[in-house]
Each structure stands twice: as C-alpha cells, then as structure tokens.
C-alpha cells in the first residue's frame, strides 16, 4: 500500500503546474455547495465542471459528475484526483486542512458568501460569474433573480393578512426536535414567504424542549424532504407528543420541501419562496 503522504505528494506534484498552463478562464472546475453548482449551470458553464460535492444535486445532470464528498468534509486526495484548475465553494466548505493543501497546490479556491435575501443571492451569482470570467452573464442573471425574489417576497407579505407561525424542524430523529431559531436560511425563507418563525428566542439551531414547542404554538411544521430513508423523522413528526397538541399537530399541517430548493438561496429561490407561500396559505391559491 502506498503511504497516504506519498500518494498525496504525487497528486500535488501533478496539480501544481495546472495554473501555469494558460491565462484563459478555468476549464476544469469543481463546484462545492449545491447553490454554487446550480449557479454554474445557470450561467451556461456546466460543461466546465469535472466534479461536485454531495450537496450538489441540481440539475440532475450534476449527479453524473464524480462526487468529492460532503462540502464540510472534503478530502484533498478526492479533490486533487480530478485535476481541477479552479474550485468554487460555498462559505463553510472545508475542513481548513484540506483548503490549505489545495492552496499549497496553487489551485485557486474561491469562496462564495452566504445569502439570505435577494441582494445576497445576486451577490453570490456575481461572485460565481467573476470566478468563471462570465461577468456579463452573471450581472444579467443576478438582476433578474434579485428582481423576482423581491417581487415574490413583497407579494407574499401583502397577501398574508394573518401571518402563519412556522416551526422549521431540522431533525426529529429519536423524538428529539432540532429546530431553527433566527439568523438561519430557514428563518429567512419563512419570512420571505410571508410567515413568522415560531421560534425567535435564539440564533441558529437548537434542540427544543416540549415546553418550548408548546410555547411556540406553530400553525405549520416545515421540514426538508430528504427522500426515502433520509427524512430524519419527518414521517411521524406530527405524532410527537408536544407537536401533536399544537395548532400544527391538530390540523396535521406539515410542509416538506427539497432541501436545496428550499434553503439553497440560488437561482431558483424566487420559485421556492412562491411555492412555500402557497403551501403556507393554500386558501390564497
């Protein structure tokens, strides 16, 4: 067996000359983060992708690319094995040790900031476009997407006369509810869709007590649709003892949406906001 350090050294030796080949736009790109990869395709540069991370599942053709692992647990060997000349990654990609090795290999590693509103999505699109040398296309797409998000969010707010209280549950596995407070993508989507986050007492995600669930009094439970075998408890979340006696539990109101579509904050976000609003306020349809 070849020692890991030796094998990694060989990969580094192969990767080092790549940036010196030409000053042209990168043609061997890895997209890390579902929204980043989706944006690369939306800009018409999907043919440049040679790999993607596990969260990059849209469009469907992206799943045909080699998978270099989950965005927060990338291995340098997996990334270097596809000989990229550019990595475009969402904020939070790593770990730091992997990023350092890739930087030592002289492979440009562009970090795209997080987004939680129309302006943020537009900024992300422009950042991806700049990394690809597609500024004009990115500016056009960014303006279009931002305008749609603002328009849909304004319409959602104006039609929500009595805002629905929404509890976003990240996981209900084992009967333990992990839910969103403020400052998350879920919190932002709920507000853009004209709802109210039922949990406002803490930032980020936190495990809830039964008392906290009862105090929140959600009208709707919102979760990510993870598909068969990966729903993290969504199939029976309405049967949770605390949720069952809330307005959401009594009315059996559970909304499940594809995770990347709902929380990705990419080119499809305006559609996701509209769909979430329709699910929260079906009487308006």
Automatic annotation (TrEMBL):
Matching SUPFAM superfamilies: Helical backbone' metal receptor
Domain Fe/B12 periplasmic-binding: 28-284
InterPro entries the record matches: ABC_Transporter_SBP, ABC_transptr_periplasmic_BD
Swiss-Prot/TrEMBL keywords: Signal
Pfam families recorded: Peripla_BP_2
Signal peptide region: 1-22
Protein name (database record): Hemin ABC transporter substrate-binding protein
């Amino acid at each position: 067996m070849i020692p890991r350090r030796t094998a990694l050294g060989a990969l580094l030796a192969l990767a080092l000359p790549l940036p010196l080949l030409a000053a042209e736009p990168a043609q061997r790109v890895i997209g890390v983060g579902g929204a980043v990869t989706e944006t690369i395709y939306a800009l018409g540069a999907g043919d440049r992708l040679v790999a993607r991370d596990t969260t990059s599942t849209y469009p469907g053709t992206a799943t045909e690319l080699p998978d270099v692992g989950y965005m927060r647990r990338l291995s340098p060997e997996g990334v270097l094995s596809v000989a990229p000349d550019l990595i475009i990654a969402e904020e939070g990609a790593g770990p730091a040790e992997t990023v350092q090795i890739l930087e030592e290999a002289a492979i440009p590693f562009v970090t795209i900031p997080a987004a939680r509103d129309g302006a943020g999505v537009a900024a992300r699109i422009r950042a991806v476009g700049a990394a690809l040398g597609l500024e004009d296309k990115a500016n056009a797409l960014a303006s279009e997407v931002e305008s749609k998000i603002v328009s849909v969010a304004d319409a959602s707010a104006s039609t929500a006369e009595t805002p629905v209280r929404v509890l976003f549950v990240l996981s209900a596995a084992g009967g333990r509810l992990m839910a969103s407070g403020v400052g998350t993508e879920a919190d932002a989507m709920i507000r853009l869709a004209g709802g109210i986050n039922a949990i406002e007492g803490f930032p980020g995600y936190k495990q809830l007590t039964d008392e906290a669930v009862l105090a929140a009094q959600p009208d709707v439970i919102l979760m990510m649709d993870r598909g068969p075998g990966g729903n993290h408890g969504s199939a029976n979340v309405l049967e949770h003892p605390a949720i069952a006696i809330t307005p959401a539990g009594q009315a059996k109101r559970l909304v499940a949406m594809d995770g990347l579509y709902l929380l990705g904050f990419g080119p499809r976000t305006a559609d996701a906001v509209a769909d979430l609003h329709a699910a929260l306020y079906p009487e308006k349809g």
